[in-house]
Amino acid sequence: MVISDAKPGLTRAIAVALSESFSPQLLSQYFTRKKLLQKLESYGNGASINALLDSMRASSPTRRASSDAEHDQDSWTLRHPSALSMFEEIMNDSKGKQIVVFLDYDGTLSPIVEDPDRAFMTSEMREAVRDVARFFPTAIVSGRCRAKVYNFVKLSELYYAGSHGMDIKGPAKGHRKGNQTVLCQPARKFLPMIDEVYKRLTERIEHIPGAKVENNKFCLSVHYRCVEEKRWGELADQVKSVIKDYQQLRLSQGRKVLEIRPTIKWDKGNALEFLLESLGYAETDDVFPVYIGDDRTDEDAFKVLRNRGQGVGILVSKSPKETNAWYTLKEPSEVMQFLKGLVEWKKRGCPY
Asked: What EC number(s) does the entry state (predicted)?
């Protein structure tokens, strides 16, 4: 269980005081899931099929009794209050600082859908992101291929960090200090290997209905949201049989997706730090990063913010889960409401 750092405000003080109200069942679920996912990542390509299958199941928890679920939800909300209800307090914390906005895509700006190629954002959401970018440096940080997420968002004024931050490019004109082009591709040497594994995996799983391999340029995503659970073991076996030959790649778990990435130490947290440095805020106290995301990979960015002691992380989730974020939003519609609030706050003449 992550114990949220104490921040100013009576609400969070109460939240910490009431942290013991979590049910034993929820505590068990959190620690079990965390242990399974950590076990998978620590083993890397050496993870057993059982460990991989267990992690896949851990990402799809079964429903609890309604009374337990309501109790867990209330307790979790006290610890991680809504970013909408705490909006004014968040803005007060940002006074005198430059807000920089970081946004995941799937599950944050668009709903999670069965077909990843149809994860479209609404025109209203696009307009909200465009308005935010008028006032604040704004970046999309996604596991998707940078070109693909750009085609979804279609806003040239943003910074884009694709492939979990391993492919970063900034706009021709932006908020950064200096005129240099922002470009970062720390995993470029792995491109031939990624392409080779993509071809092999596609051939190995094509007989499994619903399975899909997505080439995100510097990483691969094996989607199993549409695969019957009784076939998960078979899918896991096929994935392992391919990547066992590539010790420079590692396997991790997302929301109904298996991620295959280079073993280099680079994630969404590193992408956040790179972008802040590119914007001229590497070693300064007058910046307030706001990172909004729904996936386990976004936790790397939340951790960076906690270590820096700057800004806030906001998790998008309807159900309780372990997180390093301070606040929560339930779904993309609430994300849009929060973004519109940022714009209105700026238009009221508030500093930065």
From this structure: 3.1.3.12
Hey, how many other C-beta atoms are within 10 angstroms of the C-beta on 114?
Answer: 12
Cβ contact 33:62 at 8 Å: no
pLDDT digits (tens, 9 = 90+) for 302-337: 999 999 999 999 999 998 989 999 999 999 999 999
Residue whose token pair is 């730090």: 273
Q: Is 104 a catalytic residue?
A: yes
List pLDDT tens digits, range 3-50: 334 444 433 433 333 333 334 444 444 444 455 455 455 455 656 667
How far is 183 from 248, CA to CA, in rounded Å?
23
Instruction: Kindly state the DSSP code that residue 216 receives in the 8-state scheme.
Output: -
Look up the pTM and report it. 0.80
Distance CA 217, CA 191 (A): 7
User: Could you tell me the sign of the dihedral formed by the alpha carbons of 88, 122, 104, 115, in that order?
Assistant: positive
Q: What is the phi/psi pair of residue 339, to 5°?
A: -65, -40
What is the C-alpha to C-alpha distance for residues 103 and 289, in angstroms, rounded to an integer? 11
